[in-house]
Amino acid sequence: MRVLICDDHTLIRAGLRRLLESFDGIEVTAEAANADEAVIRACEHAPDVVVLDLSMPGRNGFEALAELRLRCPDSAVVIMSMHDDASHVREALDRGAAGFVVKEAAPAELEIAVRAAAAGRTYLSPQVSAPLLRTVAQPATGVEALPPRQREILSALGAGQTSKQIAANLGISIKT
């Protein structure tokens, strides 16, 4: 099974490569440090699975996920994130993720998620699946209904940052 890793931290990518390649039949064929690289590498290498971090400078993992699903529909995407709230998980699934693994997970959990995604199944870390199921009956309202990136911008505005500062800090256009 061919895997692409995308995380903005070099040390994390190196550790993930060693971990994933220790699992029988898994080969890491490419790495990316940001969303744009992830899309380019996925188009070049056609991995079976992309392991994608959400929090990266510039375009975030959600934006990369949406583009990966459009441009590389045969590559399943497993989100690996420090975020474990239901809104992040829901957005990832809505955008086409095949799995969501929290960074606190045991190494074997990542293997299970990657193999499930490659087989066309969905995997969620246990600590995110129960809260997500509880929110299915109670859809988010108000600020909670906003995507995480919009909440991040709103929070920065509330902290007194200007649009120009927010755009520079988040690596986005001031028009956004």
UniProtKB/TrEMBL annotation:
Residues 139-176 form the HTH luxR-type domain. InterPro entries: CheY-like_superfamily, NreC/VraR/RcsB-like_REC, Sig_transdc_resp-reg_C-effctor, Sig_transdc_resp-reg_receiver, Tscrpt_reg_LuxR_C, WalR-like. Keywords: DNA-binding, Phosphoprotein. It comes from the Bacteria. GO terms for biological process: phosphorelay signal transduction system; regulation of DNA-templated transcription. The modification 4-aspartylphosphate is found at D53. Residues 2-118 form the Response regulatory domain. GO terms for molecular function: DNA binding. The keyword DNA-binding applies. It holds the Pfam family GerE. PROSITE patterns: HTH_LUXR_2 (PS50043), RESPONSE_REGULATORY (PS50110). SUPFAM superfamilies: C-terminal effector domain of the bipartite response regulators (SSF46894), CheY-like (SSF52172). This is Response regulator. The keyword Phosphoprotein applies.
